[in-house]
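Quick note —
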Amino acid sequence: MKILKLFFNKIIIYYKKKSYSIFGKYFLTFDSEKTKRIMKMSRLNVNFPMYISCLSLLILIFFILYLTHSTLILYLINEMNDLKMLKIVLISIFIFWFFIIILTIFIFSIYPYLKIKEREHKIDKNMSQFMHIMFIFTSAGTSISEIMKNIQHIGIEDEIKSECNNIYKETELFGTDICTAIENTRKTMCSENLNSFFEGIENILITGGDMPDYVKRSKEKKTEFIKIRNEQTNKKIDLFCEIFILGFLAAPLFFLLMSLTISAGGGSQLSLMKFVSYNLIPALGIGFLVVSGLGIE
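Predicted structure written out below.
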């Protein structure tokens, strides 16, 4: 498994280098401060020109495949002398590959933002644990630089480790002071909660305040926030359960029973019963799950 993973990693690295060597020079002017920040926040380990170059090479490969596919079909159908069938097949092939290319462009466009959102969710989910660890270290009198180093060896979310590692690398490898290192790392943090927490640490370091007290208060505030959020989530779940029982189960069944009571049984009533039981209620249930999932989130 490790050999296979290593093999794929080498293919990806080769693909990145090859695409950048072909298209990179055409996209250097697109590397603005905004795109640099987005790529750093997503932690994709590529700059924007290389990212667009990978997309361009992939589109070129798809275009070559489209031409190859069309040529092969053209040769096979041409033997049958069916012009009408040829037109239909060629148009279908064009639509298929056009859709593939558009879908690829769309995925490449939103992927960095999805990655940022994913990282933000993971960090926010583990903020309470991170603050608890920070409180233990600061109470023991450990410096922030040492904490950033030791965090790498603790079982905590990798995305938080990544942010701490950036601060540690700036102080140890580039000789930057801890406040500047925190300030530079904060610029590319995807989580507002982690950003504000490190902003407070930076202010404490500058003013010389009580670091353990600040971390303790932040931890308690975060714990209280999680408690309130969980209570709100439970209330939402209770509300959605009541809506589901009344609106998506009781109402269709009541409608079915009323219809069967008013009119005598027959083929049409049997069809109605099947429709409500096997189509309407399951469809409403699936729709409810989707809507309630978005609402609870």
